[in-house]
């Protein structure tokens, strides 16, 4: 007998595809939260430079820019997410787009500034709503 092998896989059914629920979601491994879009862009540029020629894909989301372009970037996949708190909350509302199921590390850059400028309530919502560990300074 020959050494032929067979692979059984279900045939794709295009009629069962629902773009609202079957869309690829961003599931980052690392989340970096920073207070300003300028800082978010600087961190993203460094992350992109460090991830060059690796399988890691950084993304940035921040307020003051069209969310459509940022949503499209997230839909392509994301391993390192750099975000401002307000826009991150907006994207967390869309459960089909952003998931923290694979999240391993969270970095809060300029934490003192985030807490002193009134972001404390939003930061608490971020950590409680995402299932992440709530840091001691927000309890």
Automatic annotation (TrEMBL):
GO molecular function, one term: RNA helicase activity
EC number: 3.6.4.13
Renumbered residue ranges of the record's region Disordered: 1-20
SUPFAM superfamilies: P-loop containing nucleoside triphosphate hydrolases
Keyword RNA-binding appears in the UniProt entry: yes
Gene Ontology terms: cellular component: cytosol
Name of this protein: RNA helicase
Alphabetical UniProt keywords: ATP-binding, Helicase, Hydrolase, Nucleotide-binding, RNA-binding
Catalytic reactions of this protein: ATP + H2O = ADP + phosphate + H(+)
Listed PROSITE patterns: DEAD_ATP_HELICASE, HELICASE_ATP_BIND_1
């Amino acid at each position: 007998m020959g050494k032929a092998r067979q692979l059984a896989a279900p045939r794709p059914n295009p009629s069962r595809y629902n773009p609202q629920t079957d869309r690829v979601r961003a599931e980052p491994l690392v989340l970096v939260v920073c207070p300003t879009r300028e800082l978010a862009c600087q961190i993203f540029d460094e992350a992109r430079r460090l991830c060059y020629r690796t399988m890691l894909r950084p993304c940035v989301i921040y307020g003051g820019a069209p969310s459509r372009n940022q949503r499209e970037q997230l839909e392509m996949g994301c391993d390192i997410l750099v975000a401002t708190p307000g826009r991150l909350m907006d994207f967390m509302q869309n459960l089909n787009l952003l998931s923290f199921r694979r999240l391993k590390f969270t970095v809060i850059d300029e934490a003192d500034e985030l807490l002193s400028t009134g972001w404390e309530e939003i930061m608490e919502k971020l950590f409680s709503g995402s299932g992440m560990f709530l840091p001691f300074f927000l309890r």
